[in-house]
Please model this.
Amino acid sequence: MTEVLGVSVGSSAVRMARPDLRLHTSGEQELDFRSDTVDAYWDRAEELAAESIGVVLAQNGGNQVEATGVAYRDQQQFGEIQQAMARQRLYNYRLVPEARATLAYLEASGEIGDFGTICLYDLGSSGLTISVLDRRTGEVLLAERTTDISGDDFDRLICDNQLAKQGMELQNTLGVQEFTSRCRIAKEQLSTSGAVCLPGDSGVILISRESFEALVTVPIEYSARLVRDIVARSPQYVDAVFLVGGGARIPLVEAILRSWTGLHVVTPRDPEAVAAKGAALLATPVETPALPPPPATPLPAMPLSGAPDWLSPEPVDRPGTSKRKIRGAALVAVGLGAIAALGLTLGYGGSEEPASAPADTVSTSTATVPTTTRPAPTTTVAPAPPATTEAPAPAAPVETYEAPRYEEPAPAPAPAPAPPPLIPGLPQIQLPQIQLPPPPVFELPRF
Model:
């Protein structure tokens, strides 16, 4: 068996209703509802509504909820309910305005009668909403909301009255919350009782209906003045005023509104649950959106085709091999550069040596200079030594390396070259020592 669920979200309570069609004794079907209320005084009503709907949908009692309707008060609450439902991963629901849901229930129950344009007086715990509706089109012709009068204000009036009467002060927050909660219960019981006595840890609450009405007469008359003003500004003539919300149960509200407006004033059965019942009547199945596919697992980056591992865009898991290849390439490049520099140095020095030795001796009449015999210099060109065995074998990218070719510079007269540099790791080559002959000595003639 399938059924629908209607929910209204108030600031102090979340109410849920499910239609229950039963056969009347005359054989006709009678529209009835099974209602539940969840206290929301200590929680956010929108979050509590979403959690409650999730619990109802998860129950497997043989009755599957096919559709859910949720009544919202204004655009701000519309967004808050959407966010709360999304956090609970609930999508099969439909949001409907409270005024439209109320009109749907009044039509289905027959309580609207023959009235064409009606005024809704919705007094809840957080404020008062007054709306003018066209029954034929369902359009809201005029609407206003105020927080100057509310059910919470009535609770505070009772609390202040009782504390002043007993001459006591509440010492902590828990005591204030407990005492205010019992004042709310006393207000609800005064709708059907002449007096209420509620004992508690923070004190006894004892109040009569006459005392309560004396406390709330001024704010209720203020609300009646607002209704009269809105009815006067309505583009269509208003036939009746319907009282909904928890405050509609207060007998003084109906009496003052009838006196101030001069219109028919109707209080439906269970006025606080009218919006939830209407939301259930307007609930229709909504297709649940498909969940987005999970993100694809990224594939690892592949190395470039034909490139060595150390040129890959992502580091290859062989750090030791890559370091050896780079170190080997660097050593070989340094060695080849050193050999080229040595070759240039040797060629530069050989071109400066004379081809033959000068005269063996130089004699004068007064002094004899010993002869210095100098062997003919031999130019030794050392072959390029092989690469040192200390460096490891070059890797693939080094095998194709070719040393640059240099052209020998043209010989030019210059001073004697500096001794060749000593290169570590290469065999040392000792060049022959070259000694120039001493300068000649000239003797001046004697006179």
About this structure: Residues 1-111+271-288 form a domain with the Nucleotidyltransferase; domain 5 fold (CATH 3.30.420.40). The two ends are 156 Å apart (CA to CA). The chain is about 35% helix and 20% strand. The longest helix spans residues 319-350.
